[in-house]
Amino acid sequence: MTFWVTQALNGISFGMLLFLLAAGLSLIYGLMRMLNLAHGSYYILGGYVGLATIKVTGSFVLAALAATAVVTLIGVVMERFFLRRFPEQELPQALLTFGFLLIFADLSLWLWGGTPQTLPKPEIFERSIRMGTIVFPSYRLFVIGVGLVIGLGLWWLQEGTRLGAMIRAGVDDAEMARGTGVNVGLLSTAVFALGAFLAALGGIIGGPFVGVYPGADFEILEMALVVVIIGGLGSLKGAFVGGLLVGLLDNFGKALFPELALFTVFAPMAIILAIRPTGLFGVR
Amino acid sequence: MLEVQDIHTNYGESYILQGLSLRLGQGQVVAVLGRNGVGKTTLIRSIIGFTPPRRGRILLRGEDITHLAPHEIARRGVGLVPQGRRIFASLGVGEHLEIGQRAGNGAGWSFDRVLELFPRLRERLRNRGNKLSGGEQQMLACGRALVGNPDILLMDEPSEGLAPLLVRELGRILGRLKAGGASILIVEQNLAFALRVADHVYLMSKGKIVHESRPDELLRNHEVKARYLGV
Ligand SMILES: Nc1ncnc2c1ncn2[C@@H]1O[C@H](COP(=O)(O)OP(=O)(O)OP(=O)(O)O)[C@@H](O)[C@H]1O
Ligand SMILES: [Mg+2]
Question: What is the pLDDT confidence band of residue B103, given thresholds at 50, 70 and 90?
Fold first, then answer.
């Protein structure tokens, strides 16, 4: 029983982490028709900046603030000064973001070295919660809570606000949105920044259990892409459900059939794609 | 109000508008007529900035708007009712009106006044764009442009695909807008409809204006009608 509960919690919390990354990836794709291959880099940069901040200040909260601020700024600069120059040109954009992925990877290796590192958990989450015979690791519950809060917040932003309506209008028909007076360029920057923020937040809250290490950028990007493909490009709901699904599949796969590695994630993805080529909630 | 001066517009290598000029005065309804593919939509796209002209100028209230971004042009007072309506599939009726809302020229088109003009839309306020009928979409496209309180309204074949009853209804609505002082540039293939609503008509052929006159003059000019409209 403890095994199943613990594994389920691990899977769900990993799923929430993937949701944070996939949500940004998917929103950016929806509005700008662009796959940001440097999205996983925001995760490790968030983790490393957070780690550096913790070493100096000892505060997890300050680490989260510093990491998200730095990475959001990086996202804004990338969008405004680089990607903006190649509107609707998929190949140049893909190459450009891939270039950033390589630069950030080398930069991180140079600044922070090649040893895998984990962020210390905030102290209040060091202990576990015990209910009868079952032990809940409290940090995992915290991660799930963060995922739920962010999910609700994003859903409200998208469905319940004028800004969200403008974003959806841009996703549906960017040219017509412009013709209605919506500054789609500015929205794109904002959405890109939001995506970078969420990925950096992922680096912070994932830091204590996934950790940061050379290659984590690519691994997390790969998983987030699987989530987006399963959930459907451009769909927030898809990112959430897909994240949970992939998190659980990955975790139970590794626990029950360690020799199969990523097969337990990719096989279901192939099946879902065969049945629904646009993913679970995608329209395109 | 709006002055289009000798514009030349391309799509890549294809040269579509070949030196086109026209004017729309304050409070006027001007119709541009022409057969399929003569470049009517390209004219609208040039004005709103989707496909800016390579040469020539477009003036709105005397200000040069030729090379502004579309959202800037819209905000300076150009309302667009595009061909095919281009309703946002995932937005509710109310959301279309919300994102289009601006004080604009102060004509006072508010969310509520637009719904008074189109009572059908009030009943469908929470429906998404892709759940509306063609007629409802056309009303919504008009409403979305109106809530921006534009100085001029660009309408690209608003009667296209509407049942005759709805076309008449649309004519009445245009009449009310005109009575309220709106300046409207309307592109049409439906000759009868255009002649009913317009103060002045232009005929287009192969990217140029080939004839202009009052509607009643065009009605009597059988040679021009036969040559450029095939009627
Ligand atoms: N995006 C585009 N790229 C290349 N050529 C185009 C494009 N859009 C239109 N054209 C061409 O430009 C010409 C003018 O098209 P336009 O849409 O302006 O005509 P129109 O008068 O509005 O026709 P209709 O009455 O069918 O709406 C046509 O020959 C068309 O094939
Ligand atoms: Mg047309």
Answer: confident
User: What separation in Å is there between the alpha carbon of B39 and the centre of ligand 2?
Assistant: 7
Indicate the pTM of the whole model: 0.90
Domains of chain B, by residue range, sit at: 1-76+187-231
Per the CB < 8 Å rule, is A182 touching B99? yes
Domain spans, chain A: 2-275
In ligand 1, which atom is closest to the CA atom of B39? 18
Tell me how far the alpha carbon of residue B42 lies from the centroid of ligand 1, in angstroms. Answer: 6
Q: Could you give the count of Cα atoms lying within 13 Å of A227 in the half-sphere of its Cβ?
A: 36
Q: How far is CA A207 from CA A116, A213, A249, A253, B57, in A?
A: 11, 10, 21, 22, 57
A228: nearest Cα among A93, A42, A40: A40
pLDDT at A144 over 80: yes
Average pLDDT over residues A24-34: 90
Q: B90 CB less than 6 Å from ligand 1?
A: no
| ipTM (interface predicted TM) | 0.93
Please write the tens of the pLDDT for every residue from B58-98.
999 999 999 999 999 999 999 999 999 999 999 999 999 99
* Residues of chain B above pLDDT 70, percent: 100
- Structure-token pair, residue B107: 């004509």
CATH of A2-275, one of 2.60.40, 1.10.10, 1.10.3470, 3.40.50: 1.10.3470
Instruction: Give the residue from A181, A57, A227 showing the smallest Cα distance to B79.
Output: A181
| Interface probe with B: pick from A88, A155, A167, A180, most Cβ of B within 10 Å | A180
Which fold is adopted by the domain B1-76+187-231? Rossmann fold (3.40.50)
A·B CB contacts under 8 A:
65
Q: What is the Å distance from ligand 1's center to B39 Cα?
A: 6
